[in-house]
From TrEMBL:
Start and end residues of each GFO/IDH/MocA-like oxidoreductase domain: 139-263
Protein's name in the database: Gfo/Idh/MocA family oxidoreductase
Domain (Gfo/Idh/MocA-like oxidoreductase N-terminal) ranges: 8-121
Gene3D superfamilies from the UniProt entry: Dihydrodipicolinate Reductase, domain 2, NAD(P)-binding Rossmann-like Domain
InterPro entries reported in the protein's UniProt record: Gfo/Idh/MocA-like_OxRdtase_N, Gfo/Idh/MocA_Oxidoreductase, GFO_IDH_MocA-like_dom, NAD(P)-bd_dom_sf
Top-level taxon: Bacteria
């Protein structure tokens, strides 16, 4: 922190699609000084540095050591998240990391171990994750209602989230995309960490995971582009997740069933179907075999006119660094939840059987290494994405 300006000095590593998003809002934050941008592509780093009146770096170590930064935002390909974060922690530099925290659980644990070790020397060290969908008012309202027990005992959550369309051109836009070696997975690793995080944020981690992942079913890729998962929770609740990058038009429908009714989020509307009494109680007490209860349909008012997104997450992060107060949208260790679901689904699919939680991290890492070593996949063409492509189209519509 610059004591004379009251600003946090931030460096950005990674200037791909999401890195551009960060640069855009960072330049608008009065309490932030962008002291450096870093990318292994020199021309890209030079361009962004010139446009934002800052310094270009081509190795993250140089940014960490030479720029005088207080904090780093990590927006590099997934496998490199642990490397950059661990190097930052060792230097007492605060970290805001893009999703997912890592590709596999063992790497995530390495990050968390390094963070805890660094905090011995730097007790005020902060580690946040860019789970910006937690700022969306619909999800925050659902979280509030579940915490208040509006639905009572939960029995089922079903999420059909197929609004993740990606064309072949998207997958061809980078040599690291949609490969085991470059990205470590497909839709679960790239598009759905937010969905997986939201599931575990709302309902907790299941005790059993069953996954069915289809590899390159609709695209010329070697990773999953369609997934169906089934979750069993210790409290008896079951969950379903259906995702793909192939559907047009896509669907984003979340149903949450509890003894007192049902919550449905779809098409920008949250609706509560409220039972007059617990359905579980009614089932045992009614003398009629077929008669259903009449539920009350209630449209839940949502204040949509609130700040959301990446900037809000970073603002909370900066406020914590400046004052030592306030909550982060997502603390670093919370990233393990979404990754547990992702790794568990894929390990289950590879084994063609259910897996228990905690997931066997060594088994998943070994399988991933096997897939990388035996891969025969070769990209036919690699094209650059459109320079003016709107990244906001890739974010969830449930705001």
């Amino acid at each position: 922190m610059n004591p004379n300006s009251g600003k946090i000095k931030i460096g950005l590593v990674g200037l791909g699609n999401i890195g551009k998003t960060h640069v855009r809002y960072l330049s608008q934050m009065e309490q932030v000084e962008l002291v450096g941008v870093c990318d292994v592509v020199k021309e890209k780093a030079d361009k962004f540095a010139e446009e934002n009146h800052t310094q270009a770096y081509y190795r993250h170590q140089d940014l960490l050591e030479q720029s005088g930064l207080d904090a780093v935002i990590i927006a590099v390909p997934h496998y490199d998240h642990p490397t950059v974060a661990i190097d930052a922690f060792a230097r007492g530099i605060h970290v805001m990391c893009e999703k997912p925290i890592a590709v596999h659980l063992n790497d995530a644990q390495r990050m968390l171990d390094a963070y805890e070790e660094a905090k011995v020397r730097f007790p005020k060290l902060e580690f946040g994750l860019m789970f910006q969908e937690r700022t969306y008012p619909f999800y925050r309202k659902i979280k509030e209602m579940l915490n208040e027990g509006v639905l009572g005992k939960l029995t089922r959550a079903t999420w059909i989230h197929t609004e993740w369309f990606r064309s072949q051109a998207y997958y061809d836009s980078g040599d690291w995309r949609a490969t085991w070696a470059g990205e470590g997975g497909g839709i679960l690793t790239n598009q759905c960490p937010h969905t997986l995080d939201m599931y575990q944020w709302l309902f907790g981690i299941p005790s059993e995971i069953t996954g069915h992942a289809h590899i390159g079913k609709y695209h010329n890729i070697e990773v999953e582009d369609e997934v169906t998962a089934y979750f069993e929770h210790e409290n008896g609740m079951i969950g379903h997740l259906i995702v793909t990058t192939a559907e047009l038009p896509g669907t984003n429908r979340l149903e949450i069933i509890g003894e007192n009714g049902k919550l449905v989020l779809e098409n920008g509307q949250l609706v509560l179907y409220k039972n007059p009494v617990s359905m579980l109680k009614y089932s045992f007490e009614t003398t009629e075999g077929f008669r259903k209860m009449d539920s009350e349909r209630i449209e839940i008012d949502i204040d949509k006119d609130v700040p959301t997104g990446h900037k809000v997450v970073t603002e909370k992060f900066v406020r914590r660094l400046l004052s030592g107060e306030g909550e982060l949208i997502a603390e670093g260790p919370e990233g393990v939840g979404a990754l547990t679901l992702a790794n568990g689904i894929m390990l289950s699919s590879f084994r063609k059987s259910s897996v228990s939680v905690p997931v066997d991290a060594d088994a998943f890492e070994a399988k991933l290494k096997e897939l990388i070593q035996t891969s025969k996949y070769v990209k036919k063409a690699v094209s650059a994405p459109a320079a003016d492509e709107d990244m906001s189209q890739s974010f969830s519509s449930s705001k």
